[in-house]
Amino acid sequence: MTDDNRTLISRFPYLKEDFAASLVVFLVALPLCVGVSVASGAPAELGLVTGIVGGLVTGFMRGSSLQVSGPAAGMTVLVYEAIKEFGLPVLGVIVLAAGVIQVAMGLLRLGRYFRAISVSVVEGMLAGIGLVIIAGQLYPAMATKAPDSGLDKIFELPGAFWDAFGDTGALASLAVAAGTVAVMLLWKHTPSKVRALPGPLAAVGLAMLATFALDLPVATVEVKGLLGSIQPPPLSAFGELAGVGLLGTVVAFTLIASAESLFSAAAVDRLHSGPRTQYNKELVAQGAGNMVCGVLGALPMTAVIVRSATNVQAGARTKASRVLHGVWLLLFAALLPGVLAYIPIPALAGILIHAGAKLVPVRSLAGLWREHRGEALVLAATAVSIVAVSMFEGVLIGLALAVVKTAWEASHVKLEVVDKGVGPIEAHLSGNATFLRLPKILDSLESLPQDRPVRLDLSGLHHLDHACRTALDNWAARHSAAGTEPVKLVTAA
């Protein structure tokens, strides 16, 4: 071994493992980057740009050493709505502004607070996104245009399927999409040597081969070239930040991208025994990547659990693997962009349908319903709200429901009544008396005999809010006015 080799090994002791892992992650990321971009209504190359930035910018920064960033299926719906409402040039402004806020939150050490977001809300958010992705991608799978609203995407599916069965082109497109999903589902059952090729790449490759060999009449990806697709936002687009609608979209991008990245980091930490995620630094790294993506007019980035888990499972040991995966994406985009033109759009739709289905926690929802029905209801309500209204409003509804549920559970109160037949009736309140439990408390107290004195003991309460205290005082006054001895209130010393 030469001195140069010894020096290289000493500086990069896990270069072999990281190099091999980077190739696997690249092969997984390539079709997903393109698929997310096309589904978002953006040029295919912009997804590659975001993946490259995720590797070469965010990949170099501190935070989570094994987490891989790029365009995410979980942001597809929000990006599509933003492009439809504000236009592609303004997308860069939105992503840039979101990145600035992420960096600021990281520097202010707010990253850890994202861990306090209800898991049910996050899972409900992902489930809602998954349902919209599935419904939305079934239309390009049938070579037709998807409706705008989430509900229309679902309600108009039967008619779209009916029309497809009378159209040869639509049937061919649907067959390619179905075949892609089937390959994705069955790939894990193939021999281990075959599984060395990632499922998404194999599915897209087989779809390309079938389309070419059978000369199928299906649409393929439009290619503009990497440099032609990069369109920095014009200065005039920054004036849109004065609008309330755009600011709401920026907030939605920031919160959802940050939550998805940090929850992904927590999941990745459970997959390996290496250094733990530094949440504030990871938020800064994600923000820096989004700032660069915004300047380039590309898609927003988040940490992506599929790529991150693949990175860990492929044997990566340091951040070198995710940086190298960005290098391979850059080389592909620079040297082989024409290959994208051969990718069938229904194959990408199939990839996204499979990804969307994995976002819907069908199995865990059944167990959650048996053990924590309140959490299950929050999850379901968040998902339905996202489908019925929009991403931002759906998440806000979910957060509001989670707060209400927590407040309801935290306001547990118990009233014990002891009546010995003679003397005053003893009533003992314990727990947390808040306005949420006021009807229950008053119903119980008002059912006590009006002709007997009452001793109400409040010393067992941990918390008594103003509404409850006022209501108890009013009840005591009414009960005492009936001609019996005044109600005696006993409070903690």
TrEMBL record:
Residues 15-382 form the SLC26A/SulP transporter domain. It is a multi-pass membrane protein. Keywords: Membrane, Transmembrane, Transmembrane helix. The chain crosses the membrane at residues 20-39, 46-66, 86-108, 120-139, 168-187, 199-221, 241-263, 326-355, 376-404. Its main location: membrane. It is found in: Membrane. Pfam families: Sulfate_transp (PF00916). It comes from the Bacteria. This is SulP family inorganic anion transporter. It comes from Streptomyces cinerochromogenes.
